[in-house]
Design goal:
The chain is α/β, with parallel strands linked by helices and 178 residues long. 24% of the residues lie in helices and 31% in strands. It has one domain (7-144): Rossmann fold (3-Layer(aba) Sandwich), CATH 3.40.50.2020. It binds guanosine-5'-monophosphate and magnesium ion (MG) (2 copies). One magnesium ion binds next to β5.
Length: 178
């Protein structure tokens, strides 16, 4: 595993991103719709920098099992339990990769008739994009690679690492148990 972004770099980037969000939203209340499980650590840090009124909601979708490539349309495993009509939604995910997850979820969330929907990701991994979607807010840009740590997993491992690492070919071949 190769270190890509240290915890200090991540903290600085999240702080800078939060400053942009604070400027853009002003006093307007925002609903963070956080995608479990990968975005939870990012959202926890981000929301503590936000100065507008913040509500936290969670969804869980699955697009990947043990693979590292997208399987197409994400399945909703946990949906919102309340309507978000007239709310300002900030959809928070760990990584924007092919774009399929955020594309489908933005469409799904439009059924709530929110006042606005914007997307916010820890990492914008731009090389494999399949649909025309851009993150409104991204803390880190990355061309390619499969990353873990800071909430992100490979086979449910590594979410607890406090920095972001790139998995290399030999890590992907290895079994995930010790
Ligand atoms: P997309 O639908 O944009 O292809 O994929 C988004 C989802 O794929 C992310 O929420 C994340 O769960 C997963 N994903 C994409 N790239 C990576 C990666 O490099 N590492 C990890 N751990 N997950 C990834
Ligand atoms: Mg995800
Ligand atoms: Mg995952």
């Amino acid at each position: 595993m190769k270190l890509l972004f240290s915890k200090e770099v991540i903290a600085r980037r999240i702080g800078q991103l939060a400053a942009r969000i604070n400027r853009d939203y002003g006093e307007r209340p925002v609903v963070l719709v956080v995608l479990l499980k990968g975005a939870q650590l990012f959202a926890a840090d981000l929301c503590r920098h936000l100065t507008c009124p913040v509500r936290l909601e969670f969804m869980r979708v699955c697009s990947y099992g043990a693979e590292t490539a997208s399987s197409g349309c994400p399945r909703i495993l946990l949906d919102l339990d309340e309507q978000l009509r007239d709310c300002h939604i900030l959809l928070v995910d760990d990584i924007l990769d092919t774009g399929l997850t955020l594309h489908h979820l933005s469409r799904h969330l439009r059924q709530h008739q929110p006042a606005s929907i914007r997307t916010c990701v820890l990492i914008d991994k731009y090389e494999r994009r399949q649909v025309a979607i851009a993150a409104d807010y991204a803390a880190i840009e990355l061309q390619q690679g499969f990353v873990v740590g800071f909430g992100m997993d490979y086979n449910e491992q590594y979410r607890n690492l406090d920095a972001i690492y790139c998995l290399e070919a030999e890590d992907l071949a290895k079994e995930s148990h010790p």
